[in-house]
Amino acid sequence: MRLFRYAVLAALLTIPVLVAAAPATYAADSIGTMHAWVTPSQATPGARVTFAVNCERQMAAGATLSGTTLGLPEQIPMSQDSSGNFSITVDLPGDIRAGSYHPSIDCSGGSSAAVTLVVTAFPSGGGAATGDGTTATTSNGALAAAGLVLIGVGAVAGGFALRRRVARPRG
């Protein structure tokens, strides 16, 4: 019964986190009954990006992505999946400039929508400045010793807790 309570508590604590994170997964634009989106909505040069559209109530036979603003071919045909959505995955050019882009997606029924893709530049140093340890002045500092002591205390406490649990008679 306790396990069930913990599982329910974990689920109740996890659901708000998942719901809060959901809107950040893609950027969408809808006009009337047409819904278009790009995943991810923020990318770096050379990244793989998926553009998708749902041409609802139009019985569209096809959809195309206008890629000229991104440095891609002018008309890129999109493929249709089993749910009726059209999508295409493209690799952004490596030399695309940082900025906000608004490529359009056109359905064969005559409607179109523009999605927003934000391209961010790579850091100028080529990566995060985390250091490689060459500036460290000590190798066996107090923090390392304190960490080892805490690990040892945790192991001993865990051993006592397990020993006490096993030794307790059931009745």
Give Rg in angstroms: 27 Å
- Category by helix and strand content: alpha+beta
Distance between the termini: 18 Å
The global form is elongated
CATH fold type of the domain at 25-119: Immunoglobulin-like
Provide a quick synopsis of the model:
By secondary structure, the chain is α+β, with helices and mostly antiparallel strands. 27% of the residues lie in helices and 28% in strands. The chain is built from two helices and eleven strands; from the N terminus they run H-E-E-E-E-E-E-E-E-E-E-E-H.
3D structure, described in words:
The chain is of the alpha+beta class and 171 residues long. It has a domain at 25-119: Immunoglobulin-like. It is built from 2 helices and 11 strands. The protein has helices at residues 2-21, 142-167, and strands at residues 27-31, 34-39, 42-43, 48-55, 63-65, 76-80, 86-91, 99-101, 104-107, 112-114, 117-119. An 8-stranded antiparallel β-sheet has the order 1-2-4-7-6-5-9-10, with no helix packed on it. A 3-stranded mixed β-sheet has the order 3-11-8, with no helix packed on it. A hairpin with a 2-residue loop joins strand 1 and strand 2. The longest helix has 26 residues, at 142-167. The protein is elongated. Residues 16-32 have low confidence and may be disordered.
